[in-house]
Design a protein that fits this description.
This protein is α+β, with helices and mostly antiparallel strands and about 100 residues long. It is built from 3 helices and 7 strands. The protein is globular and about 35 Å long. It binds FE2/S2 (inorganic) cluster (FES).
Length: about 100
């Protein structure tokens, strides 16, 4: 099963497909999106900071306390901020759209 994900960069939307149950960090590595992810998904770095499109925010599972804590430390935190390594792409998220903080 593949999940469609939309990535917007400087107002250009790119569409990707990825196997379900991979994360946005996984997607960035496959598709060369510039997300650092230096702790490889263990919620210890927040260099996988992404911005979820407002229409999708409420459809995501809520961030756990550790993710919330990491997010709260970000200087460029927004209401739509999440850690890309914690967003698991399931078929419920078909069409999810995100961008990087520098592009909003
Ligand atoms: Fe480090 Fe997501 S990769 S917190």
């Amino acid at each position: 099963q593949m999940v469609k994900v939309l990535y917007s960069e400087k107002n250009i939307i790119k569409t990707f497909k990825i196997e379900s149950n991979k994360t946005i960090l996984d997607l960035s590595r496959i598709e060369n999106i510039a997300i650092e992810g230096s702790c490889d998904g263990s919620m210890a770095c927040s260099t996988c900071h992404i911005i979820i499109h407002k229409d999708w925010l409420a459809k995501l599972p809520k961030p756990c306390i550790d993710e919330r804590e990491m997010l709260s430390l970000l200087p460029d935190y927004t209401e739509n901020s999440r850690l890309g390594c914690q967003i698991v792409l399931t078929d419920k998220l078909e069409g999810l759209q995100f961008s990087l903080p520098k592009d909003i």
